[in-house]
Queue: 2 jobs
Job 1
Amino acid sequence: MDSLASKTYSEIIEYILKNHHSYLKRELPEIERLVFTIYKVHFFDSGDVLEKVHKLYGQLKATLESHIIKEERALFFDIKDYEKRPSRALLEKVLQGINNVEKDAEEVVEILKNIRETTKDFELPPTSCPTFDNTYKKLQELERELYNHIEVENKILFNRLKNEK
Ligand SMILES: [Fe+2]
């Protein structure tokens, strides 16, 4: 990730799309299916926890889908335009977009903490099954992946743009 700091804006964006956004596009529907399945199958033994996890995951997925749309339909284009033809007006537009995306990232972090709390750090119940195991494993992988994603965007891409001011 350190080597990203010396890359151009377009290169960092390519990196994010290839590594972080493609992961979400692939995994979000799959994890949704898993969360729904364990909620249904383990309704009688873990229903209380899984009702909350199911709801929180739904919020997380919706926020992340907005995140992808905001970046891929607008913000990333604006950053690439700014890179080609820097102007004060375009930088203002970019910074507004960053502000918006950063608020979503805060929401994502809140939901992740909430999922961790609800599941007591992904503790498996005695009635667990391979699908339950796999779902919690995938949720933890998603959590790790999202912290990396947010770090690359905030600390490398957005911070550098903020310093252009
Ligand atoms: Fe992103």
Job 2
Amino acid sequence: MSSTTTEHQYWEDRSETFDEDTSYIVGEDLNDEIKSWLQNQFTPLDAVLELGCGTGAFSEAVAPLVKDLIATDMSEPMLHQAEAKLGGHRNARFQKQDAYKTSFDEATFDAVLMVNLLHIVHDPAVILEECSRVVRDGGKIVVADITSEGTPLLAGIQLGLRYLRRWGRPPASNRNLSLDELVRLTQEAGFQVKDEVLIGTTVKAACLIGYKQGRPTPDN
Ligand SMILES: C[S@@+](CC[C@H](N)C(=O)[O-])C[C@H]1O[C@@H](n2cnc3c(N)ncnc32)[C@H](O)[C@@H]1O
């Protein structure tokens, strides 16, 4: 299955004000906490693929920590903003890629990164399979997704209202993914989850890191 038009079109239509809107809707605190968590998940030897990078808010935090970063998205306006933001990082490149089916060879990367992608797509399992395809055996998957899990009721309602005010109704593909669901989906794609955590004080993000395991070959 590949990307549906509406899935990324919805975000493309909001690309010009995406950073400002995210800051209003989610708050800078959660984004800062996600960035701090990400800082501990990479090494300077990692060749990293980011899927659904948007305007590059998290690419900017990761690029200085790794050997190479290819930041990808389906939306060109989003990629243009990411490129402008990361202009100073010579190890960062930007490409239009569909997270459901990228053009990269198998086992190309040491790590794949996705922030706020899996909860906005209609079929996260297919994207996780694609991550498993392009990561080498023993390589990493690093995921962070905003979730309503653990968010106090009032804070959740206020977040929903801020979202509606800025972005209107969410696309039909949007869903809430709990940390357990993210872990299960990631394991089903062939990764061993080593660390899983809910971060954030009021609004939360479900974060995990997993390692790709070689899959047993089926008996003949
Ligand atoms: C909610 S935004 C998150 C952006 C960024 N990761 C962040 O957290 O600030 C989701 C991004 O995923 C992109 N996207 C949606 N479907 C995609 C697909 N199938 N392949 C690649 N990118 C996709 C959208 O264009 C958008 O930039």
